[in-house]
Here is the input.
Amino acid sequence: MKHPVTREFTLAELAERLGAHLEGDGGRRVRGLATLREAGPDQVAFVANRSYLKDLSATRAGAVLLQPEHAAACPVARLELANPYLGYAQLSQLFDPILAPPRGGIHPAAVVADDVVLGERVEVGPNAVIEAGVELGDEVVVGAGCFIGAGSRIGAGSRLHPNVTVCHGVVVGARAILHSGCVIGADGFGFAHDGGRWHKIAQLGGVVLGDDVEVGSCSSIDRGALDDTVIGNDVKIDSQVQIAHNVRIGDHTALAGCVGIAGSTRVGRNCMLGGGVGLAGHLTIGDGVQVTGMSLVTNSIHEPGVYSSGTGAMTNALWRKNAVRFKQLDDFARRLARLEKRGREG
Amino acid sequence: MKHPVTREFTLAELAERLGAHLEGDGGRRVRGLATLREAGPDQVAFVANRSYLKDLSATRAGAVLLQPEHAAACPVARLELANPYLGYAQLSQLFDPILAPPRGGIHPAAVVADDVVLGERVEVGPNAVIEAGVELGDEVVVGAGCFIGAGSRIGAGSRLHPNVTVCHGVVVGARAILHSGCVIGADGFGFAHDGGRWHKIAQLGGVVLGDDVEVGSCSSIDRGALDDTVIGNDVKIDSQVQIAHNVRIGDHTALAGCVGIAGSTRVGRNCMLGGGVGLAGHLTIGDGVQVTGMSLVTNSIHEPGVYSSGTGAMTNALWRKNAVRFKQLDDFARRLARLEKRGREG
Amino acid sequence: MKHPVTREFTLAELAERLGAHLEGDGGRRVRGLATLREAGPDQVAFVANRSYLKDLSATRAGAVLLQPEHAAACPVARLELANPYLGYAQLSQLFDPILAPPRGGIHPAAVVADDVVLGERVEVGPNAVIEAGVELGDEVVVGAGCFIGAGSRIGAGSRLHPNVTVCHGVVVGARAILHSGCVIGADGFGFAHDGGRWHKIAQLGGVVLGDDVEVGSCSSIDRGALDDTVIGNDVKIDSQVQIAHNVRIGDHTALAGCVGIAGSTRVGRNCMLGGGVGLAGHLTIGDGVQVTGMSLVTNSIHEPGVYSSGTGAMTNALWRKNAVRFKQLDDFARRLARLEKRGREG
Here is the structure.
């Protein structure tokens, strides 16, 4: 489904907001974004990279965001700028119906403790529950059904979508986006084993999220055992991610869906972990490390670069023949060495 | 624990509902289902396939669903039909205490916007929150604590279990079942990188679920960036699944628990993905593809069939010896070729 | 962030609670726990194992938990006991601000059915919803926004953190800890295939959790098809775990984050499954089995011990060369055998 049209801008307005050079009718009004192929005359399209150029000549878009070098091939109005994909990101914010400035106000069906400190224009949705000692910065939006535990602080401009849980003693920086179903600050998984059974270690640390952090739906960031679990600035976390206690993640790192990071592992700045990647506990992953999807990392990584493990899918028939040989690899190695030795001696 | 007995049928009634041939006392009353081994005289059992036949002769069930060819071996009343497992599925619906027709009514502790369009016999539980512009079809059930965002539409006969989140601008078809904790329509994971940091791309598309879709607990289906994320009719999605933005899934496809599908990948009709399978982004998976558990798919698959990757568990001692050889495989290949060449030359 | 100081004990009090031998000033007051390196004079530190001994001589802690054999190296007051890590676990409970005894009471914004049976000092938070026929034992705490479905029973001393969902007909033992976002008792994933489409099998079993079970945030334990899904006593389940219908897990078993267990598999007592481990359906895993992170188990395991699969990450360049050889392993094996045969014959 398409959203109802909610906002309209002239091309001149968009050019000014983006700092782009406009060629075309500045008075033309547009109402949304679309791909080069699907855009109509009231929508803006973009050439994010060369692979899109093939669609440019036939576009019906009202205007196209592109680099100056592609201007000649554009049959319609154009907004020229160095990074059209960034321009697309910036315009997308304008057209998002959910990103209107908060109206402010506490819904009467929210349950907010008396001593909660509320910034300007804070908005709290119905059935949200906010415990004692919580501080919400200016323009924080707390969605319906959210829970914020005692003593937690949410920085200015942050948005908690509906049904988010922030446990007690959690600090969230400015401009965070927490998606529905995520849980920040549940207990880490810590037990002492004694007498044939588990004895729970209370998780006394908290969670600290820096500024501009995004956490996807149904993701978990557990609280620390003694010290805090710490997520740096501008860290982007997708859905279904598990971050265990006392993990520390550096600024600008991005974690794709279904990533799992075990306890006390440190991940550097500007890292990218692909979907389903697993990091064992107590590792150190340096800055600028990229790990491809579903890889298992059991050792620290100190050099930037791309890392991988696993094998890609093949037909089950081919896989059955080959996977069974995995258990024989050490045997192969020894037999191969024997043959080579015999060859040299023979 | 066993549920309290809530419904009772005669064998004649069941035979009629199933279109089965009854041999035995049509007036016998039964109150539930059980396996051949555990069923008592007031329960119905079934022979789903040949592996169950060994339990047939000793069953104490009140009646057994089976194929006519197995009738002779049945010591009790029998309901003969071509697909006994289907018959079991159909009877299971009768005995499910939660599947009573909705009583209808909006709980006084629900928060429902004034302009919400309500079909006949809609039921909304306590503390559910339904925003402006939502449409709920006939006999929709919205469980306690659910959130339905602005402008979303839920088709007739659909059931949202407690604490489900449906974000704004989502379309759910008829007879959907959304389990607790699932989140439909949270933002996809999209950012432009510029100046050493991430710039969010607002996710302006929606999510469209076809008819007869089921989504398991704590699963995420993210909204599209520009176009919608689209889930076909009769698609069955288990718990803890992540479906990224702009994924499209064809009719009758089933995804087991912990599957992750990255952005813009298309999965065909009648596919089955085993537990923990990961599909990379921007792939095309054709119709009738099955992928076994925890396989990683990084290339498109155009032929129907069964696909696999990975290796099964072995003792850690055996694994340590062999896994270390994985890094030497290319070296093995070269050495093997050298030996063969030498053999041919020698 | 650090929690506000909430409790204070003398070393003599702690020694008595732990049954530890105190050397030092019994009147010294302490207010929390920290590592040897970070502890100040009002905090207690611990020597969990020999690797911490290097930090002992320089510690500024108010007291240290340690084994008697390490007493000589301790520069401050000490609490000597056989298992200092257990001692740490026990003290951690004392200092956890959330583990105060429940104040009791039903919040006026909770929705509790008339016939719910409430033990002594039960506490129900705002916007929790508790359906008919539920029984809550003494000192049960139900957090804000939780849902407990019809007929479920929660044992004495159990705590449901905010936004937990317990579906109908679930039994939770004593002293359970259910973390936010977990869902106990959603439908298992069962369908009959007929006529080109899926027919739902209603899930008529329940879920039974033993005593002292912990379930992490956003984890799912599905209800059984006919019989129950059964989790033993003292089973510890981390975040983002999926347990399918009719799984049975033995006492004292621990499952790390992102584990997935498919339907009807039985896991023994005292097992440990590492993060991201996947167990196929209908397996039997014996007692005392440990599986390392992200391993795939497709066959039953009858002997205790450690099991593994997969391969660890390497540089992408190295991985590309080697992973492609995986499809050639069977070919390698045949060629190797041929060379050996030729060698023997030659």
Observations:
- Chain B touches chain C through 79 residues (CB under 8 Å).
- Confidence is low (pLDDT under 50) at residues 1-5 of chain B.
